[in-house]
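S., here's the first fold you wanted:
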Amino acid sequence: MERSAIIRANGGPDVIEWIDVDLPPPGAGEVRVRHTAVGLNFIDTYHRRGIYPVELPSGLGLEAAGVIEAVGEAVRDWKVGDRVCTFGPQRGAYSTARNIEAACLFLVPDDISDEVAAAGILKGCTTEFLVERCAKVQPKWNVLVHAAAGGVGLMLVQWLKHVGARVIGTVSNDEKAALAREAGADHVILYGNEREDVAKQVRELTEGRGVEVVFDGIGMATWETSLDSTRRRGLIVNYGNADAPVGGVNLGILAQKGSLYNTRPTLFDYYHHAAERAAGSEYVFDMFRQGIIKVNIGQRYALEDAVQAHSDLEARRTTGSTVLLV
């Protein structure tokens, strides 16, 4: 009998419940994966809260690593014993084992640990597409990264420095500021209640011009700061809603602030085709392997402590990546 988390209603972390599951054999095109480590991501909280609506009841979690235990019909590229990981789009990673479509899997290289794969594949691929294919960041650009000590934030800082950008990060406290600097941030700003202070400092650091790109995973709370920090014809990339989604925006504000560009990209539109998925994941694992991108696992929880993990993540008590261990 396996254990799996489900939600029957949207709400706070306490809507997560654990049930016993008797898994059937994997169907055609599926494999059964026994999980060893599960990645915690903000998107899990969006599904739980209903920010990204899902049909209820629903499983939770997109990111996990483990070992294939059984293979269904018509699966040719995978075998029992293969070490694999996934970042979705199928939910249900909060489980001891599950049946999953083989097309959703990536092979974990021998020199990459299960914890690193589970903590890093989603955030790493997110970082890759944001920097390389969405914003197409160039050397010497000024770039602002909100929540620079978070899981994606730390990877963004490292990747941006690798491509030669000048990175300004925002964080909420001194401990997180130290992490952002360690990752390579050139300047770190502690944000408080006065959002204007951040934009003012960004302008001072860029001789009044503003940054070419803002990476904003927070949402509504930082929207105005992002607008005021971006240079003429610059780009704001809203890739998450850690606070709340940006809504009710008059597009004329983009003209008023300097003919700005704004995009709200999703990972699965950039990892849509098999060739994109293969090339992107290989690039990410190579960045891990070379140590260019370090996967900072700031905290580990037992799998069934997911309620506490969600509470800590939303209260900003976490740093770097978080894994749930099976």
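And the second, which I think is the more interesting of the pair:
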Amino acid sequence: MSDFPAPQAWQTACAIDPALAVWQGDWTVAFALIDGPRTWHFAFAGGRITDGPGDPAFTLAAPAAAWAAFRAPVPPRHHHAIFAMLARVPGAVLSGDRLSFMRYAHVVRRVLDIGRHLARGGSAPVPVSLRPAAPPAPPPDARGAYASVTARGTAYRMYHETAGQEGGQSIPLLCLHTAGSDARQFHRLMADPWLAQHFRLIAPDLPFHGKSPPPAGAVPGSWRLDTDLYVALVMDFIRATGIDRPVLLGASMSGEICLELALRHPESFRAIVACEACEQVPNRQTGYSAHPEINQGYFVPEWIEGLMAPQSPAECAAEILWHYAQSGPAVFHGDIAFYSGDWDGRGRIGRIDTNRCPLFMLTGEYDYSCTAEMSAATAAQIPGATFRRMDGIGHFPFAENPARFLDYLRPVLQSLPGVPA
């Protein structure tokens, strides 16, 4: 694998890059990249790259072998994105002004993408996404409605979309979105002919998310999710919509609530599919997602971008990032208060009774937040639970690579009574 390009070639490619051109504006930053014994300097003034090295506000450093893996055509897990490297790769270090790095993380990521595209033998201008293209997706035949839900004495209007078969022998599949996003994550699954033939997919937006508004009188930025509130919202939504023992599907924070619901309300579900879930996820809350000096529309998508696998189609990844960019004030931050804070299944998840409700756990190879090893260790504590690692998938399986996810989900669903092979 080739090295990063020479400084002049790299800077020239940055100067004509279509993404960096869009981000030009009244901002200035300089940073450095250390690759083993070599150092590259990048300086932006007025949002445009300049020739001078500048005084680096921050420095990214990693061993040469780690950067070589980063530049690979299909990087190995934990080497595919800078946030993944900082979290999981020994020797990957961010030093200097962390606030400045978080403010310009999207610029840094783009500069690195330009560098690795050139290192792989590509030419400038660099494509906006280095991910593979996906075939066009048919629009889902989805129907939207609102349900009146009450939790902790507060009334909410929860928007939800439904697709697939109504009545008859169709099985309800209740789909819960990830932190900071909404039910649009399931549009591509809703368009799958096999799922639509055998299941009725129901995907709600949590309050403050998507088309579900905050309750009356709520202060912007006040959303804070915790385990009891989450359970109450899901269970009252089921009551309000009259769903009869659905199969429950979730990932990330909704994968965690899948485990909690398997423990508290097993008889309410035919089966539970908990993706990207484990007994506890530490160190994923970040104050930068609610920091007044950081544009959440840039930062939050960047914070989660590296959770997706490099094999995931560009169109799917772009949809996920757009959903996160549209999140309300501190909504993602309030969700992570549950995901990597209030949620703690340690000492409890072993009491899940899979005889009362089958439990399946699926985790993506490239998820560096809840790794496959973390999920496997959790599943091993639950008698009768089934775990499988999903190769070539990251943290958002049903949204980032629906076709590949169905290769793992469909056998799970076909193992249930009444679902044809």
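Why I say that: The chain has a mean pLDDT of 96. The radius of gyration is 22 Å.

Talk tomorrow,
H.
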